[in-house]
Amino acid sequence: MAAASTAAVSVANARGRSENGYQIHEIRISASAFVPAVFDAAPGDIIRWTNYDLVPHTATAIDGSWDTGHLGRGGTSGIILRPGMQQEYYCRYHPSMKGRISLRVIEG
Hints:
Strand content: 35-45%
Oligomer: single chain
Number of helices: 0
CATH superfamily: Cupredoxins -  blue copper proteins
CATH class: Mainly Beta
Order of helices and strands: EEEEEEEEE
CATH architecture: Sandwich
C-alpha cells in the first residue's frame, strides 16, 4: 500500500545523498526494533528501511498514509519525505515496534 501523498521509491543501491542532493537515511530493522528509532530528516530526504530479522516487518504510518509493505528478511523499501506527512510509524505485524521521523522545516 503506497499513499498518494508520498512516493515509494526503489533505493536498493542508493547511499549517502540522492540525485536531488537530499540525504538518504538508512533504518535497520533488527531484533524487532527500528534502529535508530528516532531520527532527524528534511522534506525531500529518502528513508530506506532494511529488514535484518528472520520474521517479516513493515514500517507503516500511524495514520496509514504511507507504508513500506511487507519486508521479508533482507527486504528493503523506501519513501520520500514530504512536508506535513505523518512522522510516527510502527510495524503492522508487531505494533509494539515504533519509530519517529523528526521532520525539519526548511526555510528559504
